[in-house]
Amino acid sequence: MHLARFPRVSLGHFPTPLEPLENISRLLGGPKIWIKRDDATGLATGGNKTRKLEFLLADAQAKNADVIITQGATQSNHVRQTIAGAARLGLQAKALLEQRVTDFGEDYQRSGNVLLDKVLGGEIVAHLPAGTDMQQAMEDYAATLREQGHNPYVIPGGGSNPIGALGYVACAEELLYQSSERRLRIDHVVHATGSTGTQAGLVAGFTATNSHVPVLGISVRAPKAKQEENVWNLASRTLDLLGVPGELSRYAVVANSDYVGDGYGLPTEGTLEALSLLARHEGILLDPVYSAKGMAGLIDLIRKGHFRQDENVVFIHTGGAAGLFGYRQVLEHV
Ligand SMILES: *Cc1c(COP(=O)(O)O)cnc(C)c1O
């Protein structure tokens, strides 16, 4: 595997820190928990999409794009980071937002990521109802821009295609480097999984390097079988892109969908507990859609004795704190 042969632009601060979660580990009395600070990638409040965008936006530049189109939920962290990355590279950015969540009033619709999208100079070209075929809507919009003489580059939701997943292949390499530098044996990697690029990239990276660190994705949306199938498909395509031969084992992909609750973007009791625990014992801000749901899964699994005491578990903080401001109604009473 030779990642340096893929075009890449520099958008974030890497390597991100790998830090012990001393207080939470002590509080839970389970394995030693480490946190990989991908919330600290630095691009307009950071997050996991920064790594993907280093490869995606380099591909857009290589194809001489002048405008970037992407899509996400109203409070999408991906849309915010894409707009920021495009701004850095002098590209226009247009976003289509899907109204997947309608329960949280004016702040959800206008503050948090949506506000930052505007501050960063992005244009929200459409607010579409939940269930819209967003990929098709982007293709249609791209066709309109082409008729006007533009050369648009379409980034799928979450930046999750093989090129975007290369960002998390790079993260797998970074983790392995940090692990050998500190002589830290990583027994498990746990993180929130949605559009699948993060987990697919990690699995592809740990497979291609023959290190086979187990990765557990805590789903924020899809049921287990569906999520695992989606991750496996993208991880397999990413390994193809990397030129790694052989078929990826189905067992390399593990998702847990027990913590989704009522649906995407709807925090559960466990989500809110995880969010407060990390805030109040570590001074770390999680987000109510992804990272706190992932952490809620990790906390519950620790309480159920899923990990041994002598194990090291790395939780990847995938970012999202900008979204907290969209959830004022829920969070001011926590
Ligand atoms: C997008 C996102 C995720 C999920 O990553 P995928 O690659 O889409 O699976 C997790 N956490 C945060 C904060 C995100 O914005």
Which labels suit this protein?
334 residues; alpha/beta; six-stranded mixed beta sheet; four-stranded parallel beta sheet; 12 helices; binds pyridoxal-5'-phosphate
Descriptive overview:
The N and C termini lie far apart (46 Å). A six-stranded mixed sheet has the order 1-2-10-7-8-9, sandwiched between helices. The chain has a four-stranded parallel sheet with strand order 5-4-3-6. The protein has twelve helices and ten strands. With 334 residues, the protein is of the alpha/beta class. The structure holds pyridoxal-5'-phosphate (PLP). Its EC number is 4.4.1.15.
What's this, in brief?
The active site is at 76 (nucleophile). By secondary structure, this protein is of the alpha/beta class.
